Amino acid sequence: MVRTITVASGKGGTGKTTITANLGVALAQLGHDVTIVDADITMANLELILGMEGLPVTLQNVLAGEARIDEAIYVGPGGVKVVPAGVSLEGLRKANPEKLEDVLTQIMESTDILLLDAPAGLERSAVIAIAAAQELLLVVNPEISSITDGLKTKIVAERLGTKVLGVVVNRITTLGIEMAKNEIEAILEAKVIGLIPEDPEVRRAAAYGKPVVLRSPNSPAARAIVELANYIAGGAKKKVPAEVKEKKKEGALAKMLRIFRRR
Ligand SMILES: Nc1ncnc2c1ncn2[C@@H]1O[C@H](COP(=O)(O)OP(=O)(O)OP(=O)(O)O)[C@@H](O)[C@H]1O
Questions:
Q1: What pLDDT, on the 0 to 100 scale, is given for residue 204?
Q2: DSSP string computed for 29-84
Q3: Ligand 1 pocket list (CB less than 6 A)
Q4: pLDDT tens figures, 114-129
Q5: For residue 196, which atom of ligand 1 is closest to its CA?
Q6: Which residues of this UniProt protein bind ATP (predicted)?
Q7: 70 CA to middle of ligand 1, Å?
Q8: What is the dihedral sign for C-alpha 147, 59, 70, 65?
Q9: pTM beyond 0.95, yes or no
């Protein structure tokens, strides 16, 4: 069964795109077939974090009816599949965000996990991205304004029938002035499933256009994101043992023989 998860935040700059990109790579490294869709067609930062800028066909073209979705899917770092948003203002004008749900339905035919990087806030395109997924991953920073904004996003998601998978608290410092996990859970009435520290390696990796989980896998932020990926996916993808595959083949053959014999 395909999982669709929108990564959203209340306000901009929480690290939502950084988390989406690295989570996608970490899940792909665990053997899952993951597609990240950058639904933030006004900002399009995902491609920069993954070092995939300047690709010829993007989500903008697909939403404008100028290209098919399969033309806008690229294989990125660590084997993660990526649909970049596109950066042209002309493309942005022509794109119809209402088409997003149809586009996602098509991608779901060929992936296990679909991660959607939603625009920050609650404008129409953000709400469309939240409504389009089954699950919501809410990214906040450990400060009250970020959490109250995140609460609005969570309430909208619940009204739209999108299940809250959990909260990721990003950019935690050791200054001791931040909100604690239990306080955040009490305000948001949701489980915190990821605690990502402030880590200079994140910015460094972004500057090199390489995901931190690949560039500095031992850095604190990378380790925390891999832990989050394991939590979300329940570990590495289980390989179907060869005998089971063989049995399945026999089953199909037996079925065909039965049909032919009936004739
Ligand atoms: N854990 C972290 N440690 C250090 N820097 C971080 C961390 N997470 C994100 N950043 C930095 O914060 C900045 C904002 O991150 P990012 O672009 O992912 O935010 P965003 O929420 O997607 O923003 P927007 O929604 O406005 O596009 C980037 O410079 C990124 O490198």
A1: 96
A2: HTT--EEEEE--TTT--HHHHTT-TT-SS-HHHHHTTSS-GGGG-EE-GGG-EEE-
A3: 9, 12-18, 43, 45, 120, 170-171, 196, 198-199, 202-203, 206, 221
A4: 999 998 888 888 888 8
A5: 1
A6: 11-18
A7: 29
A8: positive
A9: no
Domains assigned to the chain? 3-262 (3.40.50.300)
Q: How far is the CA of 213 from the centre of ligand 1 (A)?
A: 15
Question: Which residue, 117, 19, 30, 7, is CA-closest to 78?
Answer: 30
Alpha-carbon gap, residue 80 to 60, rounded angstroms: 20
Select the more confidently predicted residue: 176 or 262: 176
Nearest-CA residue for atom 19 of ligand 1: 15
Give the residue whose CA is nearest to atom 31 of ligand 1.
203
User: What does the pLDDT read at residue 257?
Assistant: 47
Phi, psi (rounded to 5 degrees) for 164: -80, 110
Residue 91 is encoded by which pair of tokens?
């493309």
In this predicted model, which residue has the larger pLDDT, 132 or 262? 132
